[in-house]
């Protein structure tokens, strides 16, 4: 049975250690190596097999041309999961990632690999990689009349052996996760297939917990809705949820990192992600909602780690409808909307919840998939 492991692991060591109240600030002030801060992962992935999906998926893919949590959020989820893994499962996960020769992510860093799927999708200049895998990153549940079957294009059958290339075919993130998780758990599958499944699963579990990846309001996933936060910053609703609120969470948790104070080329996003992950794990262990004023909107999700992407999608959709769209108020800035202080804090609470739950659920999936591997492998 999967059980949460206490030890919050620092950004500089693989060893587990007990949590303490000073850890968050200490980790937050560390700086990674220069290599960790430089832009890398240029080039194109040689993995270019023609993955087949229904033709209708192409039109659906135009609805949400955006990233999930942004690289910091995805990495934080991966670091939360990594802290929960048993040593043997962690070894097997990293052993498989070590075979990644794509050049799109650091195979020694689970947090960086959590961003591989976005880079793979975008590396081909909207070629096959984009056309085929982009619909896997979201599900468009209509804000007013949500229908999961319709959003997943009639729930196209998912079969890892359905196409000539032997790759999974599906039309939305729910079906993608079901198919890819099955392939990841198949210990008889070729290593390169399990590697690709692992890279997608690590990323897509993050995406399905990003509320804006589960709702359709006919605004391209929030990319056409402009929101003005209380301090005057204007942003798209999608970017607000995938990046700005994650940055705000770092401030609220007092990690010692403030990405907004550094130029983009100096943004040590991996250190930010580790600091956020460590702070959320400390908060989780203490069993409270501090530093927030109210309990988490859905704190029970932390106890529900069993694999259930449909339930995860519906929960994210509920957050998007009630905390992303409903609080928006017409402003004096033309087509822009305002987000008040209290609503902003509630949104940050939801981000904290979703990052934490995604990390715990990812850990459960990895434990289930790799815990049954041949011990001699």
UniProtKB/TrEMBL annotation:
GO terms for molecular function: endonuclease activity; hydrolase activity, acting on ester bonds; metal ion binding; nucleic acid binding. The keyword Zinc does not apply. One of its GO terms (biological process) is DNA catabolic process. Signal peptide: none annotated. The keyword Metal-binding applies. Pfam families: S1-P1_nuclease. Keywords: Disulfide bond, Endonuclease, Glycoprotein, Hydrolase, Metal-binding, Nuclease. PANTHER family: ENDONUCLEASE 4. This is S1/P1 Nuclease. It comes from Pararobbsia silviterrae.
């Amino acid at each position: 049975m999967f059980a949460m492991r206490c030890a919050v692991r620092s950004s500089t060591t693989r060893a587990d250690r007990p949590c303490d109240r000073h850890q968050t600030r200490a980790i937050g002030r560390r700086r990674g190596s220069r290599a960790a801060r430089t832009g890398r992962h240029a080039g194109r992935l040689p993995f270019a097999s023609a993955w087949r999906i229904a033709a209708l998926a192409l039109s659906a893919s135009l609805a949400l041309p955006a990233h999930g949590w942004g690289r910091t959020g995805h990495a934080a989820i991966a670091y939360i999961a990594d802290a929960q893994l048993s040593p043997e499962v962690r070894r097997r996960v990293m052993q498989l990632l070590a075979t990644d020769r794509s050049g799109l992510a650091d195979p020694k860093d689970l947090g960086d690999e959590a961003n591989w799927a976005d880079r793979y999708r975008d590396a081909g200049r909207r070629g096959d990689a984009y056309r085929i895998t982009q619909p896997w990153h979201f599900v468009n549940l209509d804000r007013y009349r949500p229908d999961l079957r319709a959003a997943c294009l009639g729930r196209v059958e998912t079969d890892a052996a359905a196409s000539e290339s032997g790759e999974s075919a599906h039309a939305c993130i729910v079906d993608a996760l079901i198919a890819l998780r099955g392939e990841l758990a198949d210990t008889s599958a070729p290593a390169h297939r399990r590697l690709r499944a692992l890279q997608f699963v690590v990323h897509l579990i993050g995406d399905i917990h990003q509320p804006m990846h589960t709702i359709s309001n006919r605004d391209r996933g929030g990319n056409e809705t402009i929101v003005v936060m209380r301090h005057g910053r204007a942003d798209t609703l999608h970017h607000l949820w995938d990046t700005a609120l994650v940055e705000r969470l770092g401030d609220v948790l007092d990690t010692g990192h403030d990405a907004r104070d550094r130029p983009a080329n100096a943004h040590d996003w991996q250190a930010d992600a580790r600091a956020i992950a460590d702070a959320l794990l400390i908060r989780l262990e203490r069993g409270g909602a501090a530093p927030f004023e109210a309990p988490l909107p859905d704190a029970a999700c932390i106890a529900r780690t069993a694999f259930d992407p449909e339930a995860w999608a519906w929960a994210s959709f509920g957050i998007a409808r009630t905390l992303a769209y409903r609080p928006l108020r017409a402003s004096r800035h033309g087509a822009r909307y305002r987000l008040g202080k209290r609503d902003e804090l509630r949104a940050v609470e939801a981000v904290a919840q979703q990052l934490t739950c995604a990390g715990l659920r990812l850990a459960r999936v990895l434990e289930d998939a790799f815990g049954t591997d041949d011990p001699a492998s």
